[in-house]
Amino acid sequence: MASMALKRSPRSILIDLAVTSFLALAIFGVMVGLRTETVPGGLELQPQWMSALLLVAAAVGGRAILLLTVWNRPEGAPSLIPAAVREGAGSAISRVGKVFGPALLVFALLLPFLPFTDRYILDLSILVLTYVMLGWGLNIVVGLAGLLDLGYVAFYAVGAYSYALLALHFGWSFWLCLPVAGILAAFWGIILGFPVLRLRGDYLAIVTLAFGEIIRVVLLNWYWFTGGPDGLSGIPRPSFFGIEFSRGEGGFADAFGLEYSSLHRIIFLYFLILALALLTNYVTMRLRRLPIGRAWEALREDEIACRSLGLNTTSVKLTAFATGAMFGGFAGAFFATRQGFISPESFTFIESALILAIVVLGGMGSQIGVVIASVALIGGFEVFREAEDYRMLIFGLAMVLIMIWRPRGLIATRAPSIFLREKKAVSGSLVAQGEGH
Amino acid sequence: MSAHPLLAVSEVETFYGRIQALRGVSLDVHQGEIVTLIGANGAGKSTLMMTICGSPQARSGRVLYDGQDITTFPTHQIMHMGIAQSPEGRRIFGRMTVMENLMIGASVADQKFFDEDLERAFALFPRLKDRRDQRGGTLSGGEQQMLAIARALMARPRLLLLDEPSLGLAPLVVKQIFGAIGELNRADGLTVFLVEQNAYHALKLAHRGYVMVNGQITMSGTGTELLARDEIRAAYLEGGAH
């Protein structure tokens, strides 16, 4: 390395470090160095210069290391990340995807009966599947139609409260409430859709963000209807098509001649969310091959071209919002019946951000990408539960790294909705082995 | 020629906010004609094209299509009436395949004609057939222009609007594209309204032409007439001197 010309002179490095230390001091000096303590009669400033200086030193030291190593590499030096990792990883994932998807599905179907599966794993899987479903729902709006929606959690909330209120006040069953919750959420999707039709990109994102917050604030303050911050409790659990998961006579275990286990209900919930998620996936896959799904994707690519081809962009956007919202509503109803208790706490902006992160991280528009991202994010949160204080830090870092290496998400390739099945020439050796007939 | 023109633009004025882009433009396109509108950058050619499509709408004046006033119709409705457009800058759907682009183009047409129209588009631009499973964004500029025209044709239009199809293309490709437009007109009797900066090729191809300067039509005549005029030669054909 020494023989190669370095990009930075020692002088420029020193100036850079001086600026760094000044900035770090300005930030940490005030934020960490001066701490307010509550004392009788008011607040008191307590200087903590040592911690502030340590942070400044860490910032300067870190930057110095980067300046001397990574950022000081001569022109043309090989990248630190091997090319194989940079390019191979994504295409490998998408190639494996063809086998990976069905394998994952079989695994998901068998999971509750595997020997190592316990209550904890089932609960975690239900959580992951809920986010898979939400991710798939949001994928319609963000991934296919290209409309950035930062308030998706609003539809999740509408679904959850719809089920909770209908079940509590009218005693409607889960199966009746599920479509109603979906319809109500879709209705709110259209309500949101109308004012934002003319907006694009950043402006659309801001309005949807506000919409998400409005729904939450309304739920918080409409006390007599939603219970406000107290939430709604005692939401009925789902029954197995009318048979309760209760102990004793007439319960699920009794009806099917099984020994009672509290796990039955959890396994049922697991299959319920699995079915709902697969329904979301199936409908999305079907819609992509229909004119409406193609119109969504065309809208994502170029709105002006869409209009010039006679597509009514108003209805294209509204159907995307409504369809995405409907699946959010289904997921919300499931969430309510699973928890048995809901409050506005569960529908904060961080949820919207998490769902959006799953979609973006997975690769916008990629169905299998959403699954991988959900498992990685939600599963990851659990794995790093020990390191409570640092897990957001770890995740932030992981996401930054993924976005650097795979800026279009883990699965960046888009599968065409239609393609010609060309007969491939089959070599003689394969025919001899019994293939290609 | 038929009694009334297929497209009649009369005294159209279009504004962008307070800026007037079109100052009383009138022109006619008759059934079976190729009509071209030439003019310099910023003259208002594309604005006229977009005004015909209803986005933006004319503030005054009228646009008649087949005798019907379409001035205030929404764009998607106009596109359902037998007008198709290949927009400026091609605007193909980059991440979608050639086939998908064509399918979206066909969304206003009756689906039972799809196979027939697809055959016709592929016969006109055989290159697209080879590339039908390729993503639009990976095509060359000329192929993208072919795709944009083919996509517009999938709507089975009576009137085809083309906005600068020669933009940024190599001379050989321009020739090929213009050849295809002429072929469409001769073989299928398709009416074409062509907005172009490439005055030479456009006037050679077109039956009639209009010249636009600063939002106004300053000259009109048959293609050969206009090509022979000294003002045209000076302004648009010989290096663009004023």
UniProtKB/TrEMBL annotation, chain B:
Keywords, alphabetical: Amino-acid transport, ATP-binding, Nucleotide-binding, Transport
One GO MF term: branched-chain amino acid transmembrane transporter activity
Any single GO BP term: L-amino acid transport
Entry keyword DNA repair: no
InterPro entries: AAA+_ATPase, ABC_branched_ATPase_LivF/BraG, ABC_transporter-like_ATP-bd, ABC_transporter-like_CS, BCAA_Transport_ATP-bd_LivF, P-loop_NTPase
Domain ABC transporter: 7-239
Family indicated by similarity: Belongs to the ABC transporter superfamily.
Name used for this protein in its record: ABC transporter ATP-binding protein
